[in-house]
Amino acid sequence: MLIAQITDTHIKLPGKLAYRRVDTAAMLQRCVADVLKLDPQPDLIVMSGDLVDLGRAEEYVFLKTLLAPLKQPLVVVPGNHDDRDALRAAFAADGYLPASGFLQFVIENRFPLRIIGLDTLVPNSGRGELCSERLEWLDATLSQATDKPTLVVMHHPPFVTGIGHMDDIGLTGREAFAEIVSRHPQIELILCGHLHRNIQTTVGGRRVLTSPSPAHQVALDIRPDAPSRFRMEPPGYMLHWWADGHIVSHGAVVGDYDGPYPFFDADGQLID
């Protein structure tokens, strides 16, 4: 199974730029075009939050037109820029989102991996939270299938990254989250967004990573007083390949670059 993770697309209304500079719609179009060139094609597209920029229903309509060329099943979780009800309405037809309450869900028996989506959204705030209700749901859901390899998807990473201004709007409840996942070894990987960078660590003994954005990236500045800034570094997404009982994650860069070139000539000799 091949999973493409796209995150932090920050789609605005047509013609609007994010932060007066970033054409997030055009950049998502280029990302979609790159995904369509992949061989083999992903079996699933996962979007780990901040799908739109202001949480407007019209932004979700525009987002869906940009994603329309992708024919794979699509799984989404909310980020701090999303609106819970507008996102629910936009993707209700896909059938996995609950009709009310937190946007937490489990997808059973459709894929080799069991997929759990978590809702870390705090309305009108950049920070994330896993409150007792959301954590209890997670523990109960994990306890229902302890032998099923599981992928967890959430927006806010459950760890301190070292990028000060992003940690200031990090996840409340991460300690309890770590304790829960430590008791559930069937978790193969935890996918996050929010950081607009690829950052990897372990939490509760489980592998967790954030993905770059197909738009702008948060500036790499590992200081507690790092100012809130972004850079137009190469846009990207992640590919997660499930095979032989484990997941291998690959960083993918959006864009056209020189190559590919062979390492060996027609006679099998290394080109020097």
Provide structural commentary:
This protein is globular. Helix 2 crosses helix 3. Helix 2 (about 55-65) links the parallel strand 2 and strand 3. The chain has helices spanning about 25-35, 55-65, 85-90, 130-145, 165, 175-180, and strands at about 1-5, 45-50, 75, 105, 115, 130, 150-155, 170, 185-190, 200-205, 205-210, 215-220, 230, 235-245, 245-255. Strands 4-5-7-9-11-10 form a six-stranded mixed beta sheet. A five-stranded mixed beta sheet has the order 3-2-1-14-15, with no helix packed on it. A two-stranded parallel ribbon has the order 6-8. It is of the alpha/beta class.
Characteristics:
6 helices; 272 residues; 21% helix
| Estimated share of beta-strand residues | 15-25%
Poorly predicted regions are: none
How far apart the termini lie comes to 37 Å
Number of strands: 15
**H/E order of the elements?**
EHEHEHEEEHEHEHEEEEEEE
| Spatial ordering of strands, largest sheet | 4-5-7-9-11-10
Fraction of helical residues: 10-25%
How many helices in DSSP terms?
6
Q: How large is the radius of gyration?
A: 19 Å
Overall body shape: globular
What average pLDDT do the residues reach? 97
Structural class: alpha/beta
Summarize the structure.
The chain has 272 residues and is α/β, with parallel strands linked by helices. 21% of the residues lie in helices and 24% in strands.
Give the arrangement of secondary structure elements.
Blueprint: E1 2-6, H1 24-36, E2 44-48, H2 57-67, E3 74-77, H3 84-90, E4 105-107, E5 114-117, E6 128-129, H4 132-143, E7 150-153, H5 164-167, E8 171-172, H6 174-182, E9 187-192, E10 199-203, E11 206-210, E12 217-218, E13 230-231, E14 236-243, E15 246-253
Parallel strand pairs: 1-2, 2-3, 5-7, 6-8, 7-9, 9-11
Antiparallel strand pairs: 1-14, 4-5, 10-11, 12-13, 14-15
